[in-house]
């Protein structure tokens, strides 16, 4: 089967030549296993850290000469697992390849999805790990309450566009977001129901927050860290809460370590800053799936994806995601058999 391999670790910023599409044999199907043809693959910022040898995140790093992996959704072509017949749709971790043999541990009921309930891409986006991350961060980590003013960064991205919409459904009174460029800012208000948006490239975020939330904010859902986290600490009201979800601004050379000095704000205002890894909160998944499926059905929230076609274009999709080329969830769609 065709797979995307890491050729070498990036020297600075990742580049297309760091990746290659190669042919690899598939192992024979053992008892309990499934042969799956991938239809959609998730493209995630966390892959950036996994390209390096040093930075260890919450999962293993990639190895030069070996295929990448990541979340994906596929259709079962052959099954030696009676509870998952051919034709079933399953979510799993062996993306970045056309076909995969899934181990019994990956083939329990939890991986199966119902295409009648929502379109396939939504199962990797709003109803997948992406939406779940937004939900956990707001509902459990930041404990969004009715009346809150909520600020979300990388607000037009996958997690951010879900977070803005979910914050409103959880009772937030005012939701503001930042994104790169005027087009994304317009979308935040027009499509994702944000009350106001600011372009972090065009205006210091500290000034934008003073303008858009003069009374301060109660919750910050942080996808980017750095300057925006510092700005949020200034804007937070006493007792405010911060869900630390990700640090997009801290990849590569853009490390503004001086911003850490702003943490005195957390002391002065008795803030709660809490980091989280979504996989520690599986107990919340049934509640998440049933609520978000309802919101999707009623049209109260919308799922938006940026879809790139073809396995060979997957590395470009990752580079584009890191540079802000996506609105909503970045996915790669694989064509035909
Ligand atoms: P996104 O769809 O949000 O894509 C990343 C976005 O980051 C880009 O579109 C870009 O948008 C923005 N960006 C890139 N560089 C910068 C920068 N220097 N400053 C500000 N924004 C920047 O990705 P996801 O929704 O998948 O992930 C969002 C965040 O959530 C990431 O930090 C990720 O690591 C984190 N995450 C955390 C999880 C957890 O368990 N804690 C689970 C899943 C994701 P723009 O054009 O606006 O710059």
UniProtKB/TrEMBL annotation:
<protein>
    <submittedName>
        <fullName>NADP-dependent oxidoreductase</fullName>
    </submittedName>
</protein>
<feature type="domain" description="Enoyl reductase (ER)">
    <location>
        <begin position="12"/>
        <end position="332"/>
    </location>
</feature>
<dbReference type="InterPro" id="IPR036291">
    <property type="entry name" value="NAD(P)-bd_dom_sf"/>
</dbReference>
<dbReference type="InterPro" id="IPR013149">
    <property type="entry name" value="ADH-like_C"/>
</dbReference>
<keyword id="KW-0560">Oxidoreductase</keyword>
<dbReference type="InterPro" id="IPR011032">
    <property type="entry name" value="GroES-like_sf"/>
</dbReference>
<dbReference type="InterPro" id="IPR041694">
    <property type="entry name" value="ADH_N_2"/>
</dbReference>
<dbReference type="InterPro" id="IPR045010">
    <property type="entry name" value="MDR_fam"/>
</dbReference>
<dbReference type="Pfam" id="PF16884">
    <property type="entry name" value="ADH_N_2"/>
</dbReference>
<dbReference type="Pfam" id="PF00107">
    <property type="entry name" value="ADH_zinc_N"/>
</dbReference>
<dbReference type="GO" id="GO:0016628">
    <property type="term" value="F:oxidoreductase activity, acting on the CH-CH group of donors, NAD or NADP as acceptor"/>
</dbReference>
<dbReference type="InterPro" id="IPR020843">
    <property type="entry name" value="ER"/>
</dbReference>
């Amino acid at each position: 089967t065709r797979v995307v391999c890491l050729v070498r670790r990036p020297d600075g910023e990742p580049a297309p030549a760091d990746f290659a599409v190669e042919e690899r044999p598939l192992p024979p199907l053992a008892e309990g296993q499934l042969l799956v043809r991938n239809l959609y693959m998730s493209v995630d910022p966390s892959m950036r850290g996994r390209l390096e040898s040093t930075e260890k995140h919450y999962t293993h790093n990639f190895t030069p000469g070996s295929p990448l992996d990541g979340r994906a959704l596929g259709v079962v072509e052959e099954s030696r697992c009676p509870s998952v017949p051919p034709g079933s749709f399953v979510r799993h971790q062996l993306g970045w390849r056309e076909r995969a043999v899934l181990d019994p541990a990956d083939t329990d009921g939890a991986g199966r999805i119902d295409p009648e309930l929502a379109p396939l891409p939504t199962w990797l986006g709003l109803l997948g790990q992406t939406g779940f991350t937004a939900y956990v961060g707001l509902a459990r980590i930041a404990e969004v309450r009715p009346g809150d003013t909520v600020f979300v960064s990388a607000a037009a991205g996958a997690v951010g566009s879900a977070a803005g919409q979910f914050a409103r459904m959880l009772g937030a009174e005012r939701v503001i977001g930042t994104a790169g460029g005027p087009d994304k800012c317009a979308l935040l208000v027009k499509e994702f129901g944000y009350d106001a948006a600011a372009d972090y490239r065009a205006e210091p975020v500290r000034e934008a927050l003073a303008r858009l939330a003069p009374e301060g904010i109660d919750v910050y859902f942080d996808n980017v860290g750095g300057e925006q986290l510092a700005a949020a600490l200034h804007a937070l009201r006493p007792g405010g809460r911060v869900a630390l979800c990700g640090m997009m601004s801290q990849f590569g050379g853009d490390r503004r370590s001086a911003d850490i000095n702003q943490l005195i704000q957390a002391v002065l205002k008795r803030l709660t800053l809490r980091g989280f890894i979504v996989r520690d909160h599986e107990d919340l998944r049934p509640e998440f799936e049933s609520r978000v499926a309802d919101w999707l059905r009623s049209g109260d929230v919308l799922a938006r994806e940026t879809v790139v076609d073809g396995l060979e274009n997957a590395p470009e999709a990752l580079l584009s995601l890191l540079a802000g080329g996506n609105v909503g969830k970045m996915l790669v769609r694989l064509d035909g058999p």
